[in-house]
Amino acid sequence: MAGRLAGRTAVVTGGSTGIGQEIARRLAAEGADIAIADVNPADETRKLVAETGRRFFSDKVDVSDEDAINRFAARVRSELGSADILVNNAAVVLLADADHVTYEEWRRTFAVNVDGPFLASKAFIPDLKESGSGRIINITSSSYWTAPPPFVSYVSAKGALNGLTSVLAANLAAHDVTVNGVAAGLVRTAAALENTSEAFFEQAVQVQNIKRVQMPDDVSGVVAFLASDDAAFITGQIIVADGGSTRR
Ligand SMILES: NC(=O)c1ccc[n+]([C@@H]2O[C@H](COP(=O)([O-])OP(=O)(O)OC[C@H]3O[C@@H](n4cnc5c(N)ncnc54)[C@H](O)[C@@H]3O)[C@@H](O)[C@H]2O)c1
Q: How do residues 46-97 score in pLDDT, each as one tens digit?
């Protein structure tokens, strides 16, 4: 049986590791060809996508660099064809509370986590309009509501990404392009562990209604649904996939 995303081309920023890698694997498993833009090599993701039989392209791209993302979009078109799905997943976490965050750290967080999704969206909008079922899916965070104190620049940037999601949805609806966000809770990735601790994960489980650690595939399934025709009438929404930590 053909997958829900057969014949589509999906771009995943930050798809070399963690949640982005699992999103790439899942979208490929559902039939999409995959392009990855990441500052780090995507060799592991390439292998996972190869196992699904889908086509794969990746390039070293800093999503905060407008020229680089525009060059990448042109290369995706020539390697895989016009894009149908853009997943803005690349982000950095620079931990500091308001007393200690430097302006440089604040700016860098916004450059990658907000400018990045804006620039990638802009670069791929012509493709998405052409698609007939274009999708932008932004990976945001339930920390926007829970606001853990050391995440000053990160939480603020995710708030801006939520705003970008709403306004892009309004801009693109007439072209049958939907724009949504998936707000994850604390997800077990190497990066999240590096930024926190095992104790932080245990505390996160305590405040969730679902009493287990959230894994990358708890996010990728929601992304695959939003990318599919089943979600054609959903736009401008942030789907909170956090085990209920913001609904206690
Ligand atoms: N892990 C969590 O607990 C959690 C929770 C909520 C939301 N999220 C969000 O999920 C996404 C992925 O998080 P993760 O935990 O998998 O992190 P990660 O660090 O494993 O993945 C981020 C990827 O983005 C890439 N990247 C970083 N800066 C880049 C840049 N300038 N240009 C291109 N690529 C860049 C990295 O190389 C990496 O491959 C992020 O948007 C993050 O904010 C994560």
A: 999 999 999 999 999 999 999 999 999 999 999 999 999 999 999 999 999 9
CB distance 88 to ligand 1 below 6 Å: no
Q: Please indicate, yes or no, if residue 248 is contained in any of the structural domains.
A: no
Cβ partners under 8 Å of residue 215, min gap 6:
187, 188
pLDDT in tens, 22-33: 999 999 999 999
Active site residues: 154
The reply to whether ligand 1 has any atom less than 6 angstroms from the CB of 52 is no
Could you tell me the CATH number of the domain that includes residue 140?
3.40.50.720
* Distance between Cα 1 and ligand 1 center (Å): 32
Going by CA atoms, what residue is nearest to atom 30 of ligand 1?
62
Mean pLDDT computed over 141-169: 97
Looking at the CA of residue 16, tell me the nearest atom of ligand 1.
39
CA 174 – ligand 1 centroid, Å: 30
In a domain, 126, yes or no: yes
48 lies in which domain range? 9-241
| Domain-located, residue 247 | no
Nearest of 22, 25, 36 to residue 3 by alpha carbon: 25
In a domain, residue 246? The reply is no
